[in-house]
Structures are given as C-alpha cells and as structure tokens.
Design a protein that fits this description.
It contains four helices and no strands. The chain has one domain. The two termini are 12 Å apart. Helices cover 52% and strands 0% of the residues. By secondary structure, the protein is mainly α.
Length: 75
Amino acid sequence: MDINDFVANFAEQFDETDPSEIQASTAFHDLEEWSSLTGMAVIAMARTQYGKPIIGKELRQCVTVEDLFNLIKNK
C-alpha cells in the first residue's frame, strides 16, 4: 500500500474538490465538500479497494489523510 496511491484514491471520493487540494497532510474534515456521505464513500473504499473494514468512529478519530492511511494500513 502506497501513500500516494491512497491519496489519489481518497481524492476520487470527492466530486467537486480539486484532487490537487488533497495531500497526505490534508485535514480532510476541514474540506468544504466533506460530509457524512463522503465519509460513507471512504468507508466503502477502505473495504472494497483495501479489504479493510473501518467504522465511522475510527474515521472521525483521523485528522489527516495520512492518519487514515495509517489506520487502514495497520488493520
């Protein structure tokens, strides 16, 4: 699992946010487009693309995209 590929996959979950705005250090909860629906898409991405189930509580505890990457990587 590569952080750059993960960031790109994460950025694909957004419809209106420019992917260049999303980096490993991005505090994703602060993105204008972030919503509970986007959160559900990220949870689905973790399960389908990485085979790692995560729950909403774990997602809410992550601050940056890299935090989320590490959570999924270490499951």
